[in-house]
Write a structure and sequence with these properties.
The chain is an alpha/beta fold. It has one domain: Creatininase (Rossmann fold). The chain contains 9 helices and 8 strands. A 4-stranded parallel beta sheet has the order 2-1-5-6, with helices on both faces. Strand 5, helix 4 and strand 6 form a beta-alpha-beta unit. The radius of gyration is 18 Å and the shape is globular.
């Protein structure tokens, strides 16, 4: 098994990066954010999740790991909260497109953008832009991958700094989680929540919160910076969540590798 540092683009020399593409030309970009996650989780929570899971997938598959950009796009209700550093949507979309374009110069022809933060609308915009340029891009979001399975593991739907994210933190970065400072804050909105679905909610008729301005500005509304129930989190729940996601992503990579071997370009354009 490779040293973890040898899985990452930024730790390799140019000839190593180019040679790797001849064996596996799938590049995997983990995406997270820097944002407040209550008083019990670090602000880099989403990015830590993305990079830790990415390493597990790379160990299984040999994909090249692109450096996590750390900063991300944010829905409006996240803005202005101390600890959160949001990128404008156009900045984030341009960043993703430029990373893919740059990595392609070293021979990488297939890209997986693995999103662990609530910025699906912006990731999708980057994917569509890159599709017009002929790039093969797949952009799964952890909460969409695990929606059904997480519903069986968790007691409450995923929202923010809650049972779901805290469980991941307890499993992936336990030394950075302080459960003594975890506080529950029940979710509220400007209209009845029966109309809405969060990232991991399994309901058929709903509005995704990205498509409505129905959330209170969090910096004004939240006492602890939490939307949900982090006190229900456990490391075992996090382990089960991560195990499912890593298996899912590994199978996705293997299908792409078999169908489109190194040097074979999927017919996007």
């Amino acid at each position: 098994m490779k040293e973890k540092r040898k899985l990452w683009w930024q730790n390799l020399r140019r000839p190593e990066i180019v040679e790797h593409a001849k064996k596996c030309d799938i590049a995997f970009l983990p995406l997270g954010s820097v944002e407040q996650h209550g008083e019990h989780l670090p602000t880099g929570e989403d990015s830590y999740h993305a990079t830790k899971i990415a390493e597990m997938v790379a160990e299984n598959t040999g994909v090249m790991l692109l450096p996590c950009p750390w900063y991300g796009a944010h829905p409006y209700q996240h803005w202005h909260y101390a600890g959160t550093i949001p990128l404008r949507e156009e900045t984030f979309v341009n960043l993703l497109a430029d990373v893919v374009r740059g990595a392609s110069n070293a021979g990488y022809g297939k890209f997986i953008l693995f999103n662990c933060h609530g910025q699906e609308w912006a990731v999708a915009s980057a994917v569509q832009r890159l599709a017009h340029e002929g790039f093969f891009v797949v952009a799964p979001t952890i909460w969409e991958i695990g929606k059904e399975e997480f519903g069986r593991i968790l007691e409450t739907p995923m929202i923010h700094a809650d049972e779901a994210e805290t469980s991941l933190g307890l499993y992936l970065i336990p030394d950075q989680v302080d459960m003594a400072k975890a506080h529950d804050e029940p979710p509220e909105s400007l209209i009845d929540r029966k109309w809405l679905a969060g990232p991991s909610t399994l309901i058929r008729s709903h509005i995704r919160t990205f498509y409505a301005t129905v959330s209170h500005p969090e910096y004004k509304h939240l006492k602890y910076g939490v939307v949900g129930y982090p006190t229900r989190a456990t490391a075992e729940k996090g382990r089960r969540m991560v195990t499912f996601v890593v298996k899912w992503l590994t199978e996705l990579v293997e299908e792409i590798r078999v169908k489109y071997p190194p040097g074979v370009k999927p017919p996007v354009k």
